[in-house]
Amino acid sequence: xxxxxxxxxxxxxxxxxxxxxxxxxxxxxxxxxxxxxxxxxxxxxxxxxxxxxxxxxxxxxxxxxxxxxxxxxxxxxxxxxxxxxxxxxxxxxxxxxxxxxxxxxxxxxxxxxxxxxxxxxxxxxxxxxxxxxxxxxxxxxxxxxxxxxxxxxxxxxxxxxxxxxxxxxxxxxxxxxxxxxxxxxxxxxxxxxxxxxxxxxxxxxxxxxxxxxxxxxxxxxxxxxxxxxxxxxxxxxxxxxxxxxxxxxxxxxxxxxxxxxxxxxxxxxxxxxxxxxxxxxxxxxxxxxxxxxxxxxxxxxxxxxxxxxxxxxxxxxxxxxxxxxxxxxxxxxxxxxxxxxx
Length: 342
What we know:
Helix content is 31%, strand content 23%. The chain has ten helices and twelve strands. The strands form three sheets. The protein has a four-stranded mixed beta sheet with strand order 1-6-7-8. β6 and β7 form a beta hairpin. α1 runs antiparallel to α10. It is flat and about 55 Å long. The two termini are 36 Å apart.
């Protein structure tokens, strides 16, 4: 069976939107660790729209400054704009529309009683292999990260990068696809082969033939549209919504991370492990918690008894600190907390 996974760089417009929201959240937490936050971002051309809710002892006066700093950390700087001009984001032309309000009192009431800030279903996954994730995703991410680092040092490669890896029935790389902006053509074959550690049967770079106009100039970026890249591609169901646009009480990041940690813990000698969790708004206890393990042809299920409160899980994962931009930049699987007593 062929297996395919895609990954996108932080310079992709959807990830730019994710990173801006995560960056703002970090600065809200620095002002008030108990802030309640849910902000979506849309970026098109050089216009950015912020919409959502923020409640806490925080100031929003520097919102545009935070947006520009987030863009700069990605690599969309004035220097980058001088190279690419109208082909990419131009920080000096950025306009920000702020449509942020406050969290509803009904939601706040439940959260203040140590309940979850939303209902939802969440999935954690682990399998044998590098980083305990499926090989096609590991390779797509590895190649993408290498190209992104190369582009940040280049004066003719752009930051809006997509990679895709297809494995054949034997687990070898059948096809490697790369989309990367280029001002001048460059043969990336040797770089791709060296990064992947094997020569794919087929390599496709910029299937349209030309790729210069990129980021929000070529495509509208919206938070939460790259969940398959953020989680496990097609190896596991996607649980919850966007992990990058909300504080930890909303559960989309927290319980997905928790489920991943449990999946790693229960993987042991199995081939694969899935953990399925659910939450109820305003309540601390989880309505369901199930682990599924696969070893060869043997599949087992059993229920988990999880007694940790939202506050305890959030603190254990370190999500009461300004770590969101780093997690968005490095990926969910970069968080490695200590085992939690179940």
